[in-house]
Amino acid sequence: MSHLAGKVAVVTGAARGIGASTAARLARDGATVAVVDVDEALTKETVAAIVGTGGEAIGVGCDVSDEADVAAAAQRIITEAGSIDILVNNAGVLRDNLLFKMSLSDWDTVLGVHLRGSFLWARKAQETMVANRWGKIVNLSSTSALGNRGQANYSAAKAGLQGFTRTLAIELGPFNINVNAVAPGFIDTAMTRATAARIGVDFTEVKKGIEHEVPLRRAGRPEDVANVVSALCSEDTSYVTGQVVYVAGGPQS
To answer: How would residue 207 be classed by pLDDT, with cut points 50, 70 and 90?
Structure first.
């Protein structure tokens, strides 16, 4: 497939997991992909994998919560690749804790990366998209937006991204820019495995328990999310905007 040929996609938090799978998928779709992560060195593996299969990619280091960093990264991408046509706000961190144990730093870090980072990148990317009168923005929310014990910061950030998505869809729609969100459920990634290890629980057992509750009876894979992002960046979904698509193996309430 090459429905994104000639387009430039920015994927934040793309060194691993969902971000890396999304970057690879958009490259297979024909886009030149800017693989963005907090340290450029971390992007090398994803970039090499894309280039090794015939795609085009560049690695870019950027702290998404830093305004100057985002501006510099965006300018570099435009200079080297020519445009920013697609933005996938995927960068994320976890600082899970119960409310009475959660520090201000835990709160600020998570809100800073997820919400502030998405705002800064969207504000910068829309400049090129508005000028071109074409663009796709996909924000990564989560089923945790519906509430999840020990994740007051993460749930608030992911719920905020849903409101952010709907608002940008209204504001940017007249410029032919689609803005949607994808909300994954439990996805088997290095981050979810590290979280289990950090709190001292057996990941295999956690996964089995979740799979028993999911109607499709399996955990999600990063490519499950990447495939939906790809669809939302296609002209086949050009009349879809302001939506939140749950990728969770079953309905959410």
So the answer is: confident
Residue 57, burial from CB neighbour count under 10 angstroms (0-12, 13-18, 19+): buried
Q: What is the mean pLDDT of residues 117-134?
A: 98
Side-chain-side CA neighbours of 175 within 13 Å: the count stands at 21
| Residue ranges of domains in the chain, CATH in brackets | 8-185+229-245 (3.40.50.720), 187-219 (no CATH)
Residues designated as active site: 154
**What was the pLDDT predicted at 2?**
84
Measured CA to CA in angstroms, residue 246 lies from 106, 108, 159 at distances of 26, 26, 13
Task: Specify the pLDDT at position 198.
Answer: 67
